[in-house]
Amino acid sequence: MAKIAVCPGSFDPITYGHLDIITRGAKVFDEINVVLLNNASKQPLFTIQERMDLIRQVTKHLPNVKVDSYQGLLVDYAKEVGASAIIRGLRAVSDFEYEMQITSMNRVLNDEIETFFIMTNNQFSFLSSSIVKEVAKYSANISELVPPIVEKALMEKFK
């Protein structure tokens, strides 16, 4: 039986930090479903379709990665695709408290789905989509933060 995991997020836009987590997860699991979830507390720069397209382009070298979106609870999506695991990236200790709350709630909702935390590489520990967007808005060099296709898309958005 294939080991399927979901890697959720808003990915607005996908960064090298996200890509690091996805790539490392793809080495452990047979299939990774990168799923964009609606986060009502965020105002996205990119549409869901634009984000999905960008993720597909930067993960095309990973044959076991699929990209999807979902309106609902993550554990419901995981059950629908037959996933037994959720992959979450941690940048710093400050991420842990929030992630622990989410993981605890997910276990209440479905205790058959395990959450795996992957610490991001140190070079990306400061990186967030919000920081990337803020810097890109001022036409700063973001080539070390996002793949070239994402950099181009950001520059187009901020023209």
Describe the protein.
There is one protein chain. This protein has helices at 16-28, 48-58, 74-81, 93-109, 129-137, 148-157; strands at residues 4-9, 31-37, 65-70, 85-90, 114-119. The protein has 159 residues and is of the alpha/beta class. It has a single domain, classed as HUPs (Rossmann fold), CATH 3.40.50. A 5-stranded parallel beta sheet has the order 3-2-1-4-5, sandwiched between helices. The radius of gyration is 15 Å and the shape is globular. It starts with a strand and ends with a helix. The mean pLDDT is 93.
Q: What's the architecture in CATH terms?
A: 3-Layer(aba) Sandwich
Classified by CATH, the class is: Alpha Beta
DSSP summary: helix tally: 6
CATH fold naming: Rossmann fold
Number of domains: 1
Classification by helices and strands? alpha/beta
Number of extended strands: 5
User: What is the strand arrangement across the widest sheet?
Assistant: 3-2-1-4-5
CATH homologous superfamily descriptor: HUPs
Averaged pLDDT, please?
A: 93
- Helix content estimate: 40-55%
Q: Calculate the terminal CA-CA distance, rounded to whole Å.
A: 48 Å
GO molecular function, one term: pantetheine-phosphate adenylyltransferase activity
Function: Reversibly transfers an adenylyl group from ATP to 4'-phosphopantetheine, yielding dephospho-CoA (dPCoA) and pyrophosphate.
Protein name: Phosphopantetheine adenylyltransferase
Binding site for ATP: 10-11, 18, 89-91, 99, 124-130
